[in-house]
Amino acid sequence: MTTMIEARNVEFSFGSTPALRGASLAIDAGEIVAVMGPSGSGKSTLLHCLAGILVPDAGEIHFDGARIDARSEQERSALRRERFGFVFQFGQLVPELTAAENVALPLLLGGVRRAEALRTAHGWFDRLGLAGLEHRRSGELSGGQAQRVALARGLVAGPRVLFADEPTGALDSLTGEQVMDLLVTAAREQGTTVVLVTHEPRVAAYADREVIVRDGRINAPDRVAS
Amino acid sequence: MSVPLTLLGLLEQEPRHGYDLKRDYDTFFGRGKPLPYGQVYSTLSRLARDGKVVISEVEAGAGPDRKRYVITDRGATEVDQWLTQPVEPEPHLQTVLFAKVVLALMLDRPAEDYLDTQRRAHLQRMRELTEVKRTGGLVDALLADHGLYHLEADLRWIETTGARLDALRRTVRP
Ligand SMILES: Nc1ncnc2c1ncn2[C@@H]1O[C@H](COP(=O)(O)OP(=O)(O)OP(=O)(O)O)[C@@H](O)[C@H]1O
Ligand SMILES: [Mg+2]
Question: What is the pLDDT of residue A148?
Fold first, then answer.
């Protein structure tokens, strides 16, 4: 198995508040890993560092065999657009756009022509059980529907890594499990590596394994990166 | 069954008379359901027969309360194995987990590590049940859900307890 994304002894502070204190984690290609741990332990900060949104104060981030934390903001931004997908707790759809346009957004940003991007986007609605909702705006979708649209947007461009931060956090348990089922099915089909932050054990149980973040460090005795 | 192991654990902390053993068991593990004397002594004689405890001194006057029980190496090994092995993740384990955590703290063992081990065992079982749910029919899915919700309750207890270990340590090791 090859490592797809890795944090090596990552430290990060918000001003004088340490959030990560030497966090190490290696995730294999195609692996789905749940990141768990108490509130405030550093889960979201770790996800943001892995995804190149935050730059660690110390330590390194490696993606697909190359170090990425030392790259420029512009290069990291391109990487996020082209190689990574994101889903957050509240779908964060663009309210002015239709559901289908929201899904097509990563493709449009990547330079795909509009007609083709929308055609690809429409293809996602059936498999997510959203057929017929393509032209609704986000305000006209239920929380569970909006989250499935957000999931489609996160996966539409075929990212190597999907970063999901509490993707079911705002949903009831049944709807949350539907979203997880779709996420896992789609990620497996595409071979997408998934970093899934959650505090819910039933959500974490969809992953291949879990790591626990505690006080900015990772507790994963089986697989700590050296 | 965890009564014999819990009694052994208390004896690992220090040798005791049967009476003290019952009192400490009732205080920490009885939960309003005191252990009958008969069960204390029958358990102790089985433990002695199996070489896990020995009777160190018989004071004048005979009678069971004059005997002091001391754990043997074999008994201590058994306590150690019991504490370090995760409990089989089935629903309704809270009392066994509770006994293990309290004993671990009394014996100054790494209770956090035991909880982590238990969490991993639970999540592994939850993964298996989730897979059943994803691949099986509705009946299988509902049965799996029943197990998942109970295991989740255990896990919540593990989290809460983990967050309060320092306070619990002060309570059981005054
Ligand atoms: N923008 C910020 N400014 C200042 N401090 C922050 C900021 N974001 C996070 N922190 C602090 O960094 C630490 C880690 O926060 P982080 O958001 O990574 O935790 P988390 O594990 O994701 O928690 P939760 O489960 O509540 O989402 C916390 O102490 C938090 O207060
Ligand atoms: Mg967070």
Answer: 92
Any domain includes A224: no
Strands of the sheet with A58-63, listed across from one edge: A17-28, A3-14, A58-63, A66-67
Q: Give me the number of domains chain A comprises.
A: 1
Q: Please give the pLDDT value at position A223.
A: 43
Of all protein residues, the one whose alpha carbon is nearest to atom 4 of ligand 1 is: A14
DSSP state of B34: P
pLDDT at B172: 86
State the SS3 of A61-118. Answer: EEECCEECCCCCHHHHHHHHHHHEEEECCCCCCCCCCEHHHHHHHHHHHCCCCHHHHH
Task: Give me ligand 2 centre to Cα A161, in Å.
Answer: 18
Structure tokens of A198?
A: 């959650």
* Percent of chain A clearing pLDDT 70 (strictly above): 96
- Residue A225 pLDDT more than 50? no
Give tens-digit pLDDT for B43-100: 999 999 999 999 887 666 656 567 899 999 999 999 999 988 888 877 666 678 888 8
Report residue B4's pLDDT band, with 50, 70 and 90 as the boundaries.
very high
On whether the pTM is more than 0.90, the answer is: no
Instruction: Tell me which residue range forms the domain holding A39.
Output: 3-219
Q: How far B141 CA sits from the closest chain A CA (Å)?
A: 12
> Best residue in B112, B113, B120, B138 to probe A by mutation, most A CBs within 10 Å?
B120
Of B116, B123, B163, nearest to A201 by CB-CB distance is B123
* A47 belongs to a structural domain: yes
Residue-wise pLDDT for B12-54, tens only, equals 999 999 999 999 999 888 877 889 999 999 999 999 999 999 9
CATH number of A148's domain: 3.40.50.300
Q: Which of B120, B126, B163 sits opposite A202 (nearest CB)?
A: B126
| Nearest alpha-carbon partner for A195 in A225, A156, A154 | A154
CA dihedral A85, A87, A93, A94 (to 10 degrees): -40
Q: Is residue A42 part of a domain?
A: yes
Contacts of A212 in chain B (CB under 8 A): 116, 119
Inter-chain CB proximity A201 and B134 less than 8 Å:
no
Query: Using a CB-CB distance cutoff of 8 angstroms, which residues of chain B are in contact with residue A205?
Result: 123, 126-127, 129-130, 148
